[in-house]
Amino acid sequence: MTIHVLATARYTICMYFVNARKKLQSHTLLLHLVPTGAVLITMLVLTLFSWKNATQAYNTERSASMHDVTTNVIDKITDRLDEYRIALVSAKALYAASNKVTDTEWQNYFKIINAKDNYAGLQGIGIAQHVPKNSASKRDDHSKEQGIYTSISIVNYAPKLPRRLGKNTADMRTIKTTSHSTEQIVDTTITNTVQFAKPDTPFTGTGFSMISPLHKADTDGSSPVTKTSNNDFVFADFLSNEVFQSTLNITPDTLYGVKIYDHDSGITNPIYSSTNFNKLLDNHALRSSEKLQLYGQEWNIDFVFSSDMLGKSARSRPLGALVAGIALSVMLSGLVLMLLIARTKSLAHNKQKELQYAKDELLSLASHQLRTPATSVKQYIGMILEGYSGKVSRQQKTLLKKAYESNERQLHIINDILYVAKIDAKGIVLTPRKLDINKLLRDLTQELSITAKDNHQEILLKSPAKPINIEADEHSLRMALENIINNALKYSRGGTKVLVSLVANKENVRIIVKDEGVGIDAEDISLLFQRFSRIPNELSRQSNGSGIGLYLSDQLVAMHKGSIDVKSIKDKGTTFTIILPKIFIAE
Amino acid sequence: MSTILVVEDEQNLNEAYQMILKHHGHKVLAAYDGNEALDITNDVEPDLILLDLRMPQMGGVEFLKQYDLKKNHPNVKVVIFSNLDTQHEIDEAYRLGADKYMLKAWASPKELIQLVDTLLRQKK
Q1: What is the ipTM of this complex?
Q2: Which of B13, B19, B108 comes nearest A372 by C-beta?
Q3: Of A266, A353, A439, A489, which is most buried by a Cβ count within 10 Å?
Q4: Distance from CA of B55 to the nearest CA of A (A)
């Protein structure tokens, strides 16, 4: 009756703890995720902000860099063409001095200004003289037709030019600017794109001309210039590619490209396109466009910028920061999660330890209290059985014996519980000594065979003939093995056999306990060695185990640095394999 | 016929031991506490003492300390019996002159008598 009450109470307490632990798990999961999530989100937001900032900074820097380039290019072009203008205007002085400037004089001029080196692209400087209607003036050898007559002196840097072009009388050429537009010219002007071609000019290519009217003011310093003055003008012809190439010095490695064209000829016929322009037009290229108004002409300057303008690494830096930020966020929140879990585990573990300790204390106390009355019962029934109160009839003896045995079982259970509590509190100290495990098994199986016979069960021992020595604590190992063999007997029906075998090798011994009993379901095997767990089957209902025996065995074998393995087939039988090292050092 | 002093606080158990010992012809004195036991040993030297360790007012170890049997009654046999097995208490009892330790729960009347007789024979 006591045992039954005890068992029920024990079961109830255990189930409570098991359920409480389950509840704790789902609750703490939430506790973990919330702060982790908060950390993750915060870090991601910060990362996003940083990335945005970095991207913005990069874009700003890049824009500034691009702006610097465009400004720089425009300045260079402006300055350069100003130099050319000066050269042209200086040439006017020659004409102003005399209507006729010989080629030699021109060549001297070119030499003085070092046209070849300093004025790349300049092909020639010439004069266009306007022969008005009704004018009988004769200029050079030209006929007296109305129109514009030009003569051009070539800058002598193309030595293969035919000698005859060295003369002042160059080929007639029509300037693409109409007479109407030349009337408009008041100051130095740059013409639209010109395609220089033979026989118009001795040089060919794309370019433009710079025109500067020869004002009457230039000659006699008197009349002001008006739009309808029909002045003569000087002009300089340029092959634009050379002009801009020498001005900008763009190489194939330059990180920006430039294309220059006017409104008239359009982008398909630019006066200049840097050699690297098309190459730079990839996915990441940035483009911009500027307009340059210079000497009456408006040029479109298209820029293309390499994506690596600020350096190869700079471009990927914001993205790198984003990736790094995300990685860091994940890592940090992962770390936070891990720390939280570890802390919870540690707290739970401590809690569990406390609970365990409290449980053990309770058990110890209860068990000690229970031992005393049980001991009394043992004495009194013992006395009757030993005839202290007179002769005992056979029937009385049978009944009394059953009472005595039940009480003995109770005492055993109490003993087991106290032992378990002691182990949990690490109160057991093993005293390992040299032990003949073969002899131990022989004694044990002999002893247990006596009780096994009552149930028509047999224990067979298969072991080598010689002693097999191991280092072990005899008392606890005996207890561990006894529990396992008793278990085998208990969970087998009458008439079955339990086979105990001992196998030894150099390092360890193997004790195999095989029964032909009811077997254990695969899912129940994990419960086997837990305290207070009893797997329900018809035989367990008959016997009154405490659910502690196997737990005890497991703990004691573990203290010997050994292990227990279980294999079972339902309704066929179970095999326990205990492996013990021959030598061990107890903790 | 020997005189045996039973020191045990649990009344039923104490009486059981008295019955068992008397049944086998021993003279039995009973005490339910260490103090009572001291009172008795002041007057009488028993042949053997069955001494419980855990008693409310004065326990077995304390009794032995005060009894000082090595000095007073060096011939007395002392059996510690207890339902507790705290090693250090047992060691202490041995150190103070106990001869044997026995777990109450394991001894049937027959076994108790065997133990007592063995010790008394040693005495002679």
Answers
A1: 0.88
A2: B13
A3: A489
A4: 12
